[in-house]
Amino acid sequence: MESNINSEQAHPDVAKPTDTTTNKDDPPPTVPDSSAAADGNDDASPAPHIHHSRSGHLLDDSSSSGPENGADKDGSASSPDQNGDVSHDPPPPNLDEEIHLTLQTLSPDIDHFLITLSERKMVVSSQETLVGEMEEKKEHDEKQETEDKDEKNEDPISGEKEAGSREHKPDSEEAGPDDEEGKKEEEKEKQICKKRSTILMPEFVEKYVDLVDGKIRDRDSSSDGKGGGGGGKWCLSPDDDALFMEIVNRFSRLASSLNEFRSDPDHAHLVNRIGSIHQRAMSYLEDEFGFLLQEHANQQPVQEPDSAGKSSAKAAETGEGGSPLPESQSKLEEEKESPYPGYSEETVTNLRNIASQMIAGGYESECCQVYMIVRRHALDETLIQSGFEKISIDDVQKMAWENLEREIPIMTSIIKECASVHFPKEHKLVHSVFSNYPSLSISLFSNLSRGILIQFLNFAEGVAMSKRSTEKLFKFLDMYETLRDGFAAIEGLYPEESEGELKTEATTVKGRIGEAAINIFSDLEHSIKNDHGKTPVPGGAVHPLTRYTMNYLKYAFEYKSTLENVFREHSKIERADSTSRPRFEGDSNQAGGGGDQDNNQSPFAGQLARIMDFLDQNLESKSQLYRDVSLCCIFMMNNGRYILQKIKSSPEIHCVMGDPWCRRKSSDLRNYHKGYQRETWSKLLGCLAQEGVQVHGKVSKTVLKERFKNFNIMFDEIHRTQSQWVVSDEQLQSELRVSIAAVVIPAYRAFLGRFSQYFTPGRQYEKYVKYQAEDIENCVEELFEGNASSIARRR
Amino acid sequence: MPATEFQPSNFLTRISTRRNQITAMDPNHELELEDLELFQRNVSDRFADLLDHPGDGGLLSISWLRKLVDAFLCCEAEFKAVLIMGREPTQLTKPPLDRLMPELLDRAVKALDICNAVSAGVESVRHCQRLAEITVAALENQNPIGDGQVKRARKALGALVASLEEKDHGGSHYKTPERSWSFGRRGAAAAVKDRPTATFRSLSMIVGKNWSAAKQIHAMWANLVAPRGAELNGLALPVYIMNVVMVFVMWALVAAVPCQDRVGLPLHIQIPRQFAWAHSLNGLQEKIGEEWKKKEKKGSAGLLEEMQKMEKLSQGLIEFADGFQFPVEEEGKLEEVAAQVKEMAEVCRRMEEGLVPLQQQIRDVFHQAVRSRSEMMELLEHAGKISQPMM
Fold first, then answer.
1. Section B194-207 average pLDDT
2. How many structural domains does chain B have?
3. Which of A98, A261, A466, B80 has the CA that lies 20 to 30 A from B229?
4. Whole domain around residue A723: which residue ranges?
5. Do B183 and A291 touch (CB under 8 A)?
6. Could you tell me if residue B219 is inside a domain?
């Protein structure tokens, strides 16, 4: 059943555009004729007979009333068609041309036929309401006039009417309703029914069906053989595709228009045949549609975008911040420029055309199914290539943090990629392919994206549920930010009314992560409060807790605005253990970095202040572990200094804590300093006091000896212990030394200057005057070094 | 919670007022026992209702599953009331609850994954629904039925049957997407042979690779031991009941809806018979277990009543389509087909009405489980903090 046969059949028809014009004299179409045609479903032999008997006028029509039309079409579109057919058609070119002529010239006829069919319907329906033969005719005529093809139109219609009446006359045994006016209403209605259910099928219809059948088989089978997996015929010749689409479109209309005659025994077989061919055409389109979709989707990822995706995920995995490398970013940019996920503009046009034809032909469901499945696979594939891995929530709970810590950046980078690249492209694609069917594209897009988004959300949920620990905060916040920004972008792709569910889901998960983050802070607070270590840090150095807390806070402040947000949105207002919960002030002003210790503190600033308070309290209690009050002061100074330095080095924290807090802290430090001076050095200075040296107006050598001895012992002791103490902040260290030197050295120098003469030079002098002022200075320089070696050196 | 038959609210207010009284007075063990009894009775009633009045669709139909999920949501809410409301959190950290609570929470996590897998399974049922709808659209109200319609229906049916027969997937499916969607060009002769348009099931696997519904059910069921002796009077019993209800509901969902890897799903979960509330649960699981036994050999899509019906109708329609020749003269044949199509349309309608709400309910279960878990965690943490020595 190839086009050759068709062409042979076509030939005689075309060659005989003769006698006919008077169709009133023509015999009505005979039942056997048409049924025979339809019977021979697979072999088109009957076609010629029909044409011999009856088709003349139609062809004649077309050649008389619409020759330009036919010729035009032929002229414009014949060459590609020719190309397509030549390969199959050995017959001489003139014959070949005649085939085109036939398919082409038949098209206007079919169009015409379709118009008359629809008119007929309208007429019938209008008849049903305001009956009246005359009116009907009038209306008829008007319509025909507007169509500008009066004669041609009238032919099938009147023919059909007659056919209707004649065929059924024998049954009804009544005079033709056409001839006799003023019959009963009832009869009229009967008549209407008959008109509706019967029609004179022009023979060109059958001819046309043959040709279309051939055409579709031709396309369908020629795409069969090609290299195993497929290879649609699509895109080989755009003009041919367009022509084919036109044929399919017309044929779809024909099929649906004629469907109402399916139970008419005269036409049932033809209608059946048309239905069958139509199904085949649709099925063919479905395959082509799937093929085009899949072919391009499969090729594309290998070429460029996913290498970029992969590397960005990798970068996020290895890099600290999770920001993709600039190189891969530029690649992403590049990829962004193409609006579709791997399809050329041309392919998209083809897809759109096919989709439109499938939908017009009533195959919307099939079309959508294919689209969904192929795109969903393609999207999954893309995600997998970006490093996406499905992890059950159960596994997330069991995963070691090191592993989960690696998974989170991969996931966040994938979500970002989806939000910025994949989903917008998918959105663009679906809206381009189904551009005429907005509601369809909306539902396809949301079905496609929903499954993937749910997976993201489930992962996030799993993460939020995982056992909390302070080190997880930053990854949690990354996740939070990604969900916030990513889903905001994705929501933009949905029409407002349908974004609801997604939004709620995203908000819920975001809330859970936010709560987890807040809980982490309260855990931190709790652990500071409950850090009851009993071992003092040697040398009064900065406590690890201080170090940890301050560095943690400093890091956390890189997420300041997010944290402000999180605390504002997800704090629970009250809980049983309210001391460890942020005191949330409902409608307080944005802290705005005012830094004042006002009541309009943001919840996050409140949390921060609380943590600092607890830290202070804890340090104070830790300082009590030192028996030496001086060391206690050094410890407080060290830690206070560390805290202050950290806060000052981070403008953000500084801003939140505020200047008054810092001033207070500084003044505390000064007090500790004074306390230290007093504790350590005022006793020593007692040795150097001028008072008491003279006994009865005379310098007492005994007292002097005592004084120097005491001074030496005390100073040695101070030097020995305090050079083991630790002040690692250089500035604080030098401040301390300077202040010590400033008190001790002048006093010692003066004392020495005044009283050293009383000792006998030599042994006695050396025994009591152990240090010169310079020695004292050197020793002071050795204080707070934190090492025992300096003492060893001296001893 | 749409169309919930059981409103837990009355129970909740009752318990909460009761608890307030309890805390106001001395903790009253009598009253607490009464609450426990009430909880047991409610559980028992709900499942008895599911067993005795499965509704129009019958056991394992969509509407029945929705009822089942509703029952679960209610039991869960009441359980939480019994367990948490007005209670000193430290009670939850004493033996045997110190062991039972973490186990319960762990089971809840596993249930979350099952919810996701089931939800994905429902999605694949929807895919089948759409294929069935194509069949119905092609064959419904066609007189006479033509070749085109039959071919169209046959194609959809082929894909439908392939989807129904598709084995549950493990995790490796996504390595070869081509396998499930290939456009091998057909020969002209084989135009309407079984050529699945595509399989959808593999797409909707959203739980991790190597994840298996059957294994999860096993894991949930393992070491679930009924309380004995003195434990029967304490909180161990409601925790046990909740565990059993959770495992049972998850098990039923997995059995009903196509789900990732169900190979080796336990046929039977043994619930001790001495408990009154266990009777109807046992009754239900025996029935479902029998169905599963029958069905498992064929390895098909799931026990969901509508899918089974769809499968049967598809077979009949495929037979009709394969033997089809235009025109069909036999009146009987046509009537039979028309009846089948009508039934199929009815199945589609029930799916259309029920699947999305069911999916939503399962998502509700997910969210409620997450919420409950975090509330209980919070309580446990709080209890932990209290019990820590203060400075």
1. 47
2. 1
3. B80
4. 688-794
5. yes
6. yes
